[in-house]
């Protein structure tokens, strides 16, 4: 199989070299993001590999015309793929799986930073303001934490959080026995009403679009800590900003927000950003904004390359493979 990979970061190169040899795949790659200007680079390849890049309908069509049959995204989420167009063009797809510890650890770090007002403390320490007022924290161990979504990442967050001794409530459309050892499954309204900390671990699929809207925020406890390391489009940013302005939301720790498209992962230092949502969010002292990097560990970079290559190869070897995008099968 011949794979052409776009957006390959320097840290991924060694994994691409390792796994293409191990899996007997011919793989060429560039660091550039895919666009209409470089779709032709993939002509004659069986598969294209991307990360969470914007792909326009013309790009799918151009790839399909030159013989590309498979599309891989080196990310767990594949909400940036247009499954309807892929289906129409007869393209099949895979996504990645990687160590759930990466996002789970980062989520708990964000919860702790929010509870202890760490961004504000660090900012003040940088200005040599070592006073205490305004910096008092909450103990995560004394909080009731609500986890929305108990897939691999949500489940791992729950297991790790159990070591802190917090009370944990969970909501998911399907329940797991393993999760019940550490958390109590409740309905969403109960989770909103009872939790001091709420964290999202659901995909950015159409059914989850703006799950967190004005209505949901109104049901949350006053001063709630809200964490999103999942997908931006699950949250209505306007409603979130209103919640911060009114004080309903005590802290928002956001590794992702809906309007991030086009920003990450570019070095835009000293450039004027045209992004009102980010501009507003970054004015709050009780907001922690990070550039969608909860996934970014050595282990997950390696896993992302390995699992997508294995998934692509499975199309030719006809093996079952869990990373195939089932909606396209
Ligand atoms: C995912 O794997 O779905 C992520 O969120 C990380 C991606 C943006 C690289």
Characterize this entry briefly.
This protein is α/β, with parallel strands linked by helices and 329 residues long. The chain contains 12 helices and 12 strands.
Explain what this protein looks like in three dimensions.
- The chain has 329 residues and is of the alpha/beta class.
- Helices cover 36% and strands 15% of the residues.
- Strands 8-7-6-9-10-11-12 form a 7-stranded parallel β-sheet, sandwiched between helices. Strands 2-1-3-4-5 form a 5-stranded parallel β-sheet, covered by helices on one side.
- Helix 7 links the parallel strand 7 and strand 8.
- Helix 4 packs across helix 6.
- The two termini are 19 Å apart.
- The relative contact order is 0.15.
- Bound molecules: 2-OXO-4-methylpentanoic acid.
- The site of 2-OXO-4-methylpentanoic acid has 7 residues, from loops.
How many strands?
12
- Helical residue percent? 25-40%
Look at the structure and give the mean pLDDT. 97
Rg, alpha carbons: 21 Å
Biggest pleated-sheet summary: 7 strands, parallel
Give the low-confidence spans. Answer: none
Give the class from helix and strand content and strand pairing.
alpha/beta
Beta-strand share of residues: 5-15%
**N/C terminus separation:** 19 Å
Q: Going across the major beta sheet, what is the strand order? A: 8-7-6-9-10-11-12
Ligands, ions, cofactors:
2-OXO-4-methylpentanoic acid
Shape: globular
Number of helices: 12
Order of helices and strands: EHEEHEHEHHEHEHEHEHEHEHEH
